[in-house]
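Today's session is about reading a structure prediction critically. Students often jump straight to the picture, but the first step is always the sequence itself: look for stretches that repeat, for charged clusters, for runs of hydrophobic residues. Only then move on to the predicted structure, which in these notes is written as discrete structure tokens rather than atom positions. Here is the chain we will use throughout the hour.
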Amino acid sequence: MSIHPTALVDPSASLHPSVEVGPYSIIESDVVIGAGCVIESGVRIFAGTRMGCDNRVCHGAVLGAEPQDLGFNPENSRPLLIGDHNRFREGVNISRGVKTEGGTQIGDHNYFMCGFHAGHDCRLGSHNVFGPNSTVAGHVELGEHIFISGLVAIHQFCFIGDHAMIAGCAKVVKDIPPYVTCDGNPARVVGLNSIGLRRAEFPGATRAAIKRAYKIIYHQQLNTRQALEQLAETPADEETRRIIDFFQQSERGVTTHR
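Below is the predicted structure for this chain, in token form.
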């Protein structure tokens, strides 16, 4: 194990022998860090954080801090659970959980750019990109392969569907369905995430089916119930069924079209 002499690592923390810890970093008790992780300089990892393999935490990042909640009680702390192959760039700040049993959870292969913040009890899936100084409030849930641009702010309890893209400086106050691009303040659907779908190697027929589904939802002068009923009347592909399920399960309401 490579631990810089200026780093402070609690003796009860569990670090795999392959972990590297840089200068002036602090790792508290009851922390678990898996194989191949690199903790750079000036990082603070708070008690209750669990980290998988091959993560890299860059200078000044803070993981598992107390939530920025005026009603926080330390007795109610829940863990921060981190998967594998994530990259936390400079100044990232992610809160521990406090109000749900599973705490704050992060999947695999996510890239968090500088200054990103996630509030308590979030569920952030896998293969997502979070732009500089973007902010995710408490209890937000994200799917996979989502791109959040810089300076985006997402309201608490929002749900972001798979393969969505949110443009810079957008203000998100409702759920964002899968496969779309959103922009504005407040954010509105402005089209499909066409580039993201091509990069993910969605076949042309699948992209056409997604486009057809959203044309029915947003462009045929139907209310949401009528649009979903029309979509359900004909045999649907997996992506269309996922869109229908997303709208039916939304609790905050789904972002409208601009």
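Discussion point for the tutorial: The longest strand covers residues 188-192.
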